[in-house]
Amino acid sequence: MSSTELPGGDGGRPAPRWHAPVGRALTVLFLVATAVTVAVMLRGQDWSALGTSLRSRPPESLAVLVGLAVLANAAALLAAMFGWWSLLAGISAGVTGTGAARIFFVGQFAKYLPGKVFALVVSVRMGRAMNVSALRMTSAWLLTLVIGLLTGATVGLAAGPRVLGGSVAWLALAALPIVAVVVRPDLIGRVAALVARLRRRPPPDTTLPGHVLRRTVLIQLLSWLAGGLHLWFLVIAMGADPAGSFLLCVGVFSLGAVAGMFAVFTPEGLGVREVLLLGALSLVLPLPAAGVVALVSRLVAIVSELVTAGAGLAVTEWVRRRPTTRRELAMTD
């Protein structure tokens, strides 16, 4: 299968020749439009507020908060990996934790390529080496996507009280979708089947035990919470009120990430999340400071995810080679 083929439902047909150059052109145009939008929003702002915020914070405090942000985002990635492992093991019982982790961490590098298909192609290829069929791997990928969208949009409602006004009743509203899928986990399978039809893919294998789906949902919620914490640490570093900015950071981070999933022609929703963060964080920070947080948040995410994925791959490779090394030592003895 070439890198432009889509597994399942395509008959193995490669994408048209114009697909790749058009995708690259749309990516460039989108990034330029995003840069212009951000520049317009920041034009004419009083940047002295940013200098004041930085001078009022000890360098040691800034370094600690940025370090905590990196760790929080790494924890979010690890939680997402355990959620993926839980789901994949439920679909294909023969998958080991090491194998699931390798697929997930390799996908972290593939997701920075424009387009959303490369991570799936990589997952399908690696799954075949583990005797997991393309259909089952695609099913796991689709179910993971649906759970991520559902939980991310739900957690995003936490930003409602600050963005749209109102009381903590927004939190009760945010809990309803999660309660629904915990009570009726089969709803996830129905949504995944709908997504598969829209994407012209085979319907996923949704015959998963309810406890597997519930566990995956709860793990993904923890992942979104940890991701929001990384943004919260950065906002505090810029001088925002910790209590007044917590729900906003957790909610808007999830919404930004979910919106980025729909930005097909940008790697990891580049630009989409930054615009949303810039607008929402301006409620608790001066606009220049909010812009800095949005950009630093992206940098923290890239660094922490790539370093964590690289370290995770190194660990899984060591685990894979360890039995071979023992056998070789035994033969030597």
Overall description:
This protein has 333 residues and is mostly helical. Helices cover 75% and strands 0% of the residues. α12 packs across α13. The longest helix has 46 residues, at 287-332. The chain is globular, with a radius of gyration of 21 Å. Mean pLDDT is 75; it is low at 1-13 and 325-333.
Compact description:
The protein contains 13 helices and no strands. It has 333 residues and is mostly helical. 41% of the residues are buried.
Describe the secondary-structure layout.
Layout: H1 19-42, H2 48-55, H3 59-91, H4 97-110, H5 118-129, H6 134-156, H7 160-163, H8 169-183, H9 186-198, H10 210-237, H11 242-262, H12 272-281, H13 287-332
Helix pairs in contact: 3-4, 3-6, 3-10, 3-13, 4-5, 4-13, 5-6, 6-8, 6-9, 6-10, 6-11, 10-11, 10-13, 11-12, 12-13
Q: Helix- and strand-based class?
A: mainly alpha
Determine the strand fraction and express it as a percent band.
Answer: under 5%
The low-confidence runs, each spanning 5 or more residues with pLDDT under 50, are 1-13, 325-333
> Average pLDDT across residues?
75
Sheet with most strands? none
Query: SSE order in H/E notation?
Result: HHHHHHHHHHHHH
| Number of helical regions | 13
Number of strands: 0
Tell me, what's the shape? globular
Helix coverage percent: over 70%
Radius of gyration: 21 Å
Termini Cα gap: 44 Å
Keywords:
mainly alpha; 333 residues
